[in-house]
Automatic annotation (TrEMBL):
<protein>
    <recommendedName>
        <fullName>Gfd2/YDR514C-like C-terminal domain-containing protein</fullName>
    </recommendedName>
</protein>
<dbReference type="InterPro" id="IPR048519">
    <property type="entry name" value="Gfd2/YDR514C-like_C"/>
</dbReference>
<dbReference type="InterPro" id="IPR012337">
    <property type="entry name" value="RNaseH-like_sf"/>
</dbReference>
<dbReference type="Pfam" id="PF21762">
    <property type="entry name" value="DEDDh_C"/>
</dbReference>
<feature type="domain" description="Gfd2/YDR514C-like C-terminal">
    <location>
        <begin position="41"/>
        <end position="216"/>
    </location>
</feature>
Length: 249
């Protein structure tokens, strides 16, 4: 697990220590859990004007339990929309009122957008999770999760009660590549075969990111990682010249 013990105090894990210690270490363990549990994917876009660990929008997606990805020959293009339909991925994007972007960013292409006051975001996200019919033992998933874990533990701690374990897709992708360098989401999606889908590849522009689109990218990328046979050669993940500090690009 990349998040060392020294981060525990900053992450305020005392009230969710059981979840913190339930990090999923590898794809094999994840596959065994998602046969009976759903996956909830999260992404938060920072709001720099609000100081540390404030977000301007929050994306959330749900993947129902996946009985098996072994030899799952889907027979359709490797695109986010195709994966969303085939695996029943549900997604929402919550924009926080008065924190809207000053410039136009990506439009959310895969679900509903809600504009919510800052003090009502946690309640809204809880309602969205309930609308997914998710079990209270879902797996929490993100990419380079350090920011999202801080946002959840500081601002939306009630959401943490829904999860029994968590996993960082960035770590899984690095393991699949056999390289210690942590890859960007953009490079990971290209390596997984999504290079022809502009929604999956995303934008090089940090301010243009949409948290709702990113959770669908993450959901599809995670599914493709789980579909790879254990005997597969290392995943050949390239390295973009431009990356964000959160590595989400």
């Amino acid at each position: 697990m990349r998040y060392a013990k020294r981060y525990e105090e900053k992450l305020k894990t005392r009230h969710w220590k059981s979840l913190w210690e339930s990090n999923i270490p590898d794809l094999a363990t994840l596959k065994s859990q998602v046969e009976s549990r759903g996956i909830i994917v999260v992404d938060a876009e920072p709001w720099n004007a609000g100081g540390s660990f404030e977000c301007r929008e929050f994306g959330i997606a749900y993947i129902p339990p996946i009985q098996s990805t072994h030899n799952d020959d889907m027979g359709f293009p490797r695109t986010l929309k195709a994966h969303q339909k085939h695996y029943g991925i549900q997604s929402h994007c919550v924009h926080i009122r008065s924190r809207e972007r000053s410039r136009c960013g990506q439009a959310f292409e895969f679900g509903e957008v809600d504009l919510v006051n800052a003090d009502l975001v946690e309640e809204k996200l809880l309602g969205i999770i309930e609308s997914f019919n998710a079990s209270p033992e879902s797996v929490l998933v993100g990419f380079d999760l350090s920011f999202e874990l801080r946002v959840l533990s500081i601002h939306y701690p009630r959401l943490l009660e829904w999860f029994s374990s968590w996993v960082d897709v960035q770590e899984l992708a690095a393991d699949a590549s056999g390289h210690p360098r942590m890859p960007s989401l953009r490079d990971t999606m290209i390596a997984l075969g999504f290079g022809g889908d502009r929604h999956a590849v995303g934008s090089h522009i940090n301010w243009g990111h949409c948290a709702g689109n990113d959770v669908v990218r993450l959901a599809a990328g995670l599914i493709e990682l789980m579909r790879r046979p254990e005997s597969s050669p290392p995943l050949n993940i390239g390295q973009s010249q431009k990356k964000s500090s959160k590595q989400k690009i």
